[in-house]
Design goal:
The complex is a heterodimer. By secondary structure, chain A is α+β, with helices and mostly antiparallel strands. Chain A folds into 2 domains: 45 residues, no CATH class; 62 residues, Roll (CPE0013-like fold), CATH 3.10.530.10. In chain A, 18% of the residues lie in helices and 35% in strands. Chain A contains 2 helices and 10 strands. In chain A, strand 1 and strand 2 form a beta hairpin. Chain A is elongated, with a radius of gyration of 18 Å. Chain A starts with a strand and ends in a 7-residue tail after the last strand. By secondary structure, chain B is α/β, with parallel strands linked by helices. Chain B has 3 domains: 191 residues, FAD/NAD(P)-binding domain; 133 residues, FAD/NAD(P)-binding domain; 90 residues, Immunoglobulin-like (Sandwich), CATH 2.60.40. Chain B has 8 helices and 28 strands. In chain B, a hairpin with an 8-residue loop joins strand 3 and strand 4. In chain B, helix 4 runs parallel beside helix 5. The longest helix of chain B has 19 residues. Classes of the chains: A alpha+beta, B alpha/beta. The complex binds flavin-adenine dinucleotide and iron/sulfur cluster. Flavin-adenine dinucleotide binds next to helix 1, strand 6, strand 9, helix 3 and helix 4 of chain B. The site of flavin-adenine dinucleotide has 38 residues of chain B, from helix 1, strand 6, strand 9, helix 3 and helix 4.
Chain lengths: 121, 417
């Protein structure tokens, strides 16, 4: 089977063709400009992942929320579950950029970290 | 009256990079004026990742990218005033600004760097029939509500315009539980990056309708729905294709305009295409000692390029202040045949470095050739697998070639299929 995907690893957005056998294993990858595209195409066909950027509620900060991201990619299928988990969280000001806000979210092994400062009010 | 060698107007990535470079080049007396409550500019609300791939070699979020420069500004002890709005620049480079603490400030600068960024085209710039109901806003305004104020402006959303900010907000609103019904794009192609169409729309099954626009907004106090319609080649709505879509929010992502009120008032020459100042290779405008960089000069898609350009402007301003910028002999640059604009618009042939010319094309091309000519003679030709309006391109004019030019010559860049 053939799958056509677009690499999202960088703004070039190369079109990549992946050849899969009957067991869903990758046989060949073509159309990518660089090695990252090859790696992206393989995971995209077997276990697609995305990085997540959102906000977490802050108590007593200069703003109501602080931006955050997943410190690494998480399975694409779990994105909405992670969002629900993050929506339940609230952290106390002050928050420093890089602070771990949620450890090992939903057992994915990935931390949710602050991507900005939020000083106390 | 205060006195500074360099006054930078705007504390976004452009202003900070320019100030840092000027300091590195030996100017100590620098003041940054920023009207928001913190440095960082628009990046503070761009919480998605994808910034800094070129400049830092890693993917950062907007606030993380800005923070690296804010730390440096503090470390290098560059002075700045936040909550301070610059009101006017005079012929003699006096900057008037106002804030709550100092009241009206009068600052004599030797050089001024304009780094005011851009703003979004408002609804008034479009012609959509219907009511003035609440729930119509620019995508950037919604971005600020959600990412900084932590407030969701709506539940059922239609987005007009498929530029990157519109695409990013489609995903953001969806992640926060809203239903994004459709993204409409007037043109037959999206001006957003392909990766954003994949990660922001396809991932969530949000439809993108090309050659389609919003023709009417319905609702009395709050938006209740919009009518969309397909458009023909002349971008006119086609009768009979109208479709009603129920929604409570319409986000507009229909382009950015450089914020050049101050620039215009002091009589600086503007480029009708970029809507920014006409500049030389150090980003000096037609007004002596006034430089411009970042989105106020031309709209950039990657902040990395904003940083690089602003360093050039910072270096230029430092040279000017230190008396190292000698009387120029200019050649001009001109985009022809598919090239919409070139920055800088003029280049000093006495410059001792290579010069990078940035340009944008007006449509997409596959396997095209970029040709650079000097007074009609081809000097550079390079093959490009892909050219798109959304992606800024550049060519480098080597210094030995530049040195062979004569004053008043013309460099033309064109695309050949
Ligand atoms: C809503 C929006 C979303 C964007 N999203 C993205 C994105 O996702 N990815 C991307 O790569 N690029 C994005 N951009 C483009 C982004 O603006 C640039 O990459 C970069 O931030 C431009 O830097 P800048 O310093 O030129 O402008 P800005 O970041 O806009 O900074 C300009 C600063 O000048 C200040 N200022 C303006 N006028 C005055 C005055 N009179 N006195 C004092 N201060 C003043 C403003 O408050 C602001 O802080 C976005 C732009 C907008 C408008
Ligand atoms: S294959 Fe390489 S160059 Fe192409 S989009 Fe992916 S990362 Fe970028």
């Amino acid at each position: 089977m053939q799958k056509n995907i677009i690499c999202v690893s960088c703004p070039m957005g190369c079109g990549i063709t992946v050849e899969l056998n009957d067991n869903g294993e990758v046989v060949s990858v073509s159309g990518n400009t660089c090695k990252r595209g090859d790696a992206y195409a393989r995971t995209e066909c077997t276990n697609p992942v995305r990085s997540l950027a959102t906000t977490v509620k802050v108590d007593g900060g200069i703003h109501n929320v602080v931006p955050c991201k997943s410190a690494g990619p998480i399975p694409k299928a779990r994105m909405m579950d992670c969002m629900n988990e993050i929506a339940k969280a609230e952290v106390k000001a002050p928050v420093i950029l890089g602070d771990i806000l949620i450890e090992n979210i939903l057992g994915t092994g990935i931390n949710i970290v602050a991507t900005n400062h939020c000083p106390a009010k | 009256m205060l006195n500074y060698d360099i006054v930078v107007i705007g504390g976004g990535p452009a202003g900070m990079a320019a100030a840092l470079k000027a300091k590195e080049c030996g100017v100590d007396s620098i003041l940054i004026l920023e009207r928001a409550e913190t440095l960082g500019g628009i990046l503070e609300q761009c919480i998605h990742t994808g910034f800094g791939l070129h400049y830092f070699g890693e993917e950062l979020s907007g606030p993380e990218y800005a923070d690296r420069f804010i730390q440096l500004v503090n470390e290098k002890k560059i002075e700045y005033k936040v909550d301070t709005m610059a009101l006017q620049i005079t012929e003699s480079n006096v900057v008037y600004a106002v804030n709550k603490e100092d009241g009206l400030l009068e600052i004599q600068a030797k050089a001024v760097i304009l780094a005011m960024g851009c703003r979004e085209r408002p609804r008034g710039a479009l012609n959509i029939a219907g009511t003035r109901a609440a729930g119509v806003m620019s995508a950037g305004t919604a971005q600020k509500y959600v990412n900084i104020d932590g407030y969701m402006p709506g539940k059922k959303v239609v987005i007009l315009g498929s530029g990157d900010i519109g695409l990013i907000m489609a995903r953001r609103m969806t992640l926060e539980g809203a239903e994004v019904k459709v993204v409409c794009e007037l043109m037959p192609y999206s001006s957003g990056l392909t990766r954003n169409i994949v990660q922001c729309l396809d991932d969530f099954g949000i439809p993108l309708r090309l050659s389609c626009t919003v023709v009417e907004i319905h609702g009395k106090d709050r938006v209740e729905g919009v009518t969309i319609a397909n458009v023909d080649e002349k971008l006119r709505p086609i009768k009979g294709t109208e479709q009603y879509i129920e929604c409570d929010t319409l986000l507009l992502s229909v382009g950015l305009i450089p914020e050049n009120e101050l620039t215009r008032e002091v009589g600086i020459e503007l480029d009708p295409v970029t809507k920014g100042a006409v500049v030389d290779e150090f980003r000096e405008t037609s007004h002596k000692g006034v430089f411009a960089c970042g989105n106020v000069l031309h709209v950039h898609d990657l902040v990395d390029y904003v940083t690089l350009e602003s360093q050039t402007a910072g270096e230029g301003a430092a040279k000017y202040v230190l008396g190292k910028k000698d009387a120029p002999e200019y050649i001009t640059t001109k985009g022809v045949n598919g090239v919409r604009y070139i920055v800088p618009q003029k280049v000093n042939i006495k410059n001792d470095d290579d010069v990078k010319l940035y340009f944008r094309v007006g449509q997409t091309y596959k396997n095209a050739k970029v040709v650079v000519k000097y007074n009609g003679n081809e000097i550079i030709s390079k093959k490009r697998p892909r050219l798109a309006p959304g992606e800024m391109e550049n060519v480098v004019i080597k210094n030995d070639i530049l040195k062979s030019f004569a004053a008043d010559g013309v460099i033309e860049i064109s695309v050949e299929a």
